[in-house]
């Protein structure tokens, strides 16, 4: 059975991938969408880190000190 042949399956998948590359070739010519996505995510991560740093600098509220103090 040729359908169960791993080489045939591999070739079928390779051909499908090449068709998809052809279909998507004009989506963003001259640009790397992967690089843009990575750059966006890194910028978001830096912003999140800044937010975390700022939240750690918030002053401790007096009520928190009262609850945590021991006689």
Describe the overall structure.
The chain has about 70 residues and is mainly alpha-helical. It has one domain (about 1-70). Helix content is about 70%, strand content about 0%. It contains three helices and no strands. It has helices at about 5-25, 35-55, 60-70. The longest helix is centred in the middle third of the chain and has 24 residues, at about 35-55. The chain is elongated, with a radius of gyration of 27 Å. It starts with 5 loop residues before the first helix and ends with a helix. The model has no long low-confidence stretch (mean pLDDT about 80).
Structural class per helix/strand content? Answer: mainly alpha
**What number of domains?**
1
Kindly state the number of beta strands: 0
Strand portion: under 5%
What fraction, in percent, of the residue positions are helical? over 70%
User: What is the residue-mean pLDDT, rounded to a whole number?
Assistant: 82
Short description:
By secondary structure, this protein is mainly α. Helix content is 70%, strand content 0%.
Task: Annotate the secondary structure layout.
Elements: H1 6-24, H2 33-56, H3 62-68
What brief labels describe this structure?
mainly alpha; 3 helices; 70% helix
């Amino acid at each position: 059975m040729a359908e169960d042949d791993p080489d045939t399956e591999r070739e079928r998948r390779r051909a499908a991938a090449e068709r998809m590359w052809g279909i998507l070739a004009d989506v963003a010519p001259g640009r790397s969408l992967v690089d843009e996505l990575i750059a966006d995510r890194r910028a978001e991560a830096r912003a999140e880190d800044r937010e975390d740093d700022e939240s750690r600098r918030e002053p401790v509220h007096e009520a928190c000190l009262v609850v945590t103090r021991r006689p």
